[in-house]
Write the structure tokens for this entry.
Amino acid sequence: MKIHFSHTDFIVVDKPSGLPVHGDQANNVVDLWRQHLGQEVFPCHRLDKDTSGLLLLALNTEAAAELSQQFFLRKVEKYYFGVSTARPKKSQGKVIGDLKKSRNGNYKLTRELKNPAVTYFFSRGLKPGYRALLFKPLTGQTHQLRVIAKSLGAPLLGDPRYDGNNADRMYLHACYLKFDYQQQSYANWLPPDTGDLFKELLLPEDDPWRHPEQLDWPV
């Protein structure tokens, strides 16, 4: 694991795929960083075990409270890359609906709007037989992007839980994270560095997907 950005009160780290943020397992992000830094760390949000990318960890309880509140109030900008072997039902748009628990720990998207998950997305061809996805979730519910991808008919590669084909990893990566802290904005960009198919998604500086915050997302 690597520190992508360091501040007195927080760090933004590069979470690898296959490592849980916290939990009972011997190896998890929180415990490893606690041991490495020799101090307590506090996750301000979560990434699924098999999702890689930018993760914000506070270094004290005051910063944890302030930064976690921003996620709760949906003030943090988050963007994710994904890859599928199927073309989604539409090339871009908005997906909204409640996520309900299903069988075996899975979730499913419903048409109810009691506590809706909200996601915007773009897609484009990656190479023959593969589709690249760019997600902008406004909410942060469990398995949200994985369920959304399946609902679009384009399950994420390497995510057999939601009908994705087997692969060398699950192809979901948190590539951009922007938040405010003490009246200053912090924008972090991190392309994926593992996954054979993600290597096909290396973006030149002038590629619009390299600057997802500047894209014409729906309001």
User: Anything to note?
Assistant: The chain has a mean pLDDT of 94. The longest strand covers residues 117-127. The radius of gyration is 17 Å.
